[in-house]
Amino acid sequence: NYIVVDIASRKKIGILDESFVLSNAYEGSTFILHGRPWKVVKIEEDSLLVSPINEIGRVPSWVGEDIPVPFEIAQEVGALRREIVEGKDNLKYPCSRGDFDSIVRYIKGVKDFAIPSDKTITIDVHDKVVVINACFGTKVNETLGRILSSLLTYKVGESVRMGSDPYRIILEFSRQISVSDIEEVLLSIEPEGIETLLKMTLKNSTFLKWYLIHTARKFGAISEDFSYSNIGTKRLFELFDYTMIMEETLNKAIWEKMDIENTKRVLKEIREGKIKIVKQGLSPFSTSFDINRGLMLPERPESVIIDAIERRLEEKEVFLVCLNCMNTWRTRVGRAELRPKCPRCSAFRIAIARSEDLTALNEKKADRKRMKNLSTTASLVLSYGKFALLTLAGRGIGAKTAARILRNYRFYELKTSEEKRKRLLKDIWRAELQYAQTRGFWEK
Asked: What is the C-alpha separation between 377 and 367, in angstroms, rounded?
């Protein structure tokens, strides 16, 4: 399992399992957790550092290991919809008349849109999102979705995000796309070639990564404690391509997640006109998908994020040293005075120090570089007071970075302007994000 940590508040917000992280998480990817959208900043050995997104949330691309809905059941749901539209709403299921009537009212209440059924699929388009309503079940829709997203990626030259459930396939593009392109690609798929096509396309997907690592572990090709973060997806696939391990991985993924035979059947019936395609805007059947939760999710107010950062920084304990009398003490940033001074000699030359700095000072082993760094932080505290402590309390922010951030401000502005203080906190947050993304480089 991976612990998910909010980089703004440094609080744990949840746990993701390895299969999701390997298949879906990469630096810059987004997902929804606890009803909010998050962006992956850094993947570490046992945790994900994430940042709240101050924009409309994107589609969560994983919903856990739900029990798959078989093709036959999804087709029966589609047939029921069609019969209701045709007026054949006779009760033949073990439910009350009132419950059945509510289903009838819902179906008949959908105006100006085609109803997806066992004989009709709809391609609903809204901005950069395409929802294909198809009553084909979990595995067929997963199979179709993977093939479509891969072929459309080649066609438009950009990555296409894909998600599916038993009754829908969601495709998300980085720009608007013609609905005719979707139909053209769908009709171009050769039913007899989909297994070969799947094996080719899955090799280029992060979806297969977890399966590959899991299989390689079983074969003894990699150790149990192998960390995938040390090797990129492309390199990992290259290592095992054209091996028994890759063949077993593909077979396992297709067996567990796909349905080749029923997908062939569906594609043939689409080509023969037995299943018709209707193109339309976003219908109620599309907006009931989880995509709606992503598209319509309200923004997390920026003020909430900034307040969380401020609370965390003010709660941080720091070591201070007076460069005048060498007195040292520890305090929380929030308790410091606007103009910090030494409690012993009242001097204002106050530096922020790390524990190793204090050890070196006590043992009189502080070298020139260490003293220069302490002197720089003391100059910042002298010029910016408590706001310098706030900045230096940021994770990964040293004297040089703090100086670069603070040079855009004046102490009086920060003291009197709420807007300026919020801007400073945003700059601190950006620096923390930058550090989180490059920490591996600095540690090496």
From this structure: 16
**Residue 407 has which token pair?**
């040079």
pLDDT tens sequence across 387-416: 999 999 988 888 889 999 999 999 888 888
- Is position 324 within any domain? yes
| Strand partners for 277 | 121
Strand partners, 279: 123
Q: Check whether residue 22 and residue 76 sit in a common domain.
A: no
Amino acid at 100: F
Nearest CA among 329, 301, 336, 337 for reference residue 315: 336
Q: Let me know whether 322 and 246 are in one domain.
A: no
Residue 89 CB neighbour total at 10 angstroms: 16
In a domain, 11, yes or no: yes
Range of the domain at 12: 2-53
Number of domains in the chain: 3
Calculate ∠ Cα 219-224-229, nearest 5°: 110
Do 32 and 93 fall within a single domain?
Answer: no
Residues in the chain: 444
In the numeric block, the tokens 């989880």 are attached to 290
Amino acid at 129: V
For 163-173, how does the pLDDT look when each residue is reduced to its tens digit (9 = 90+)?
888 999 988 88
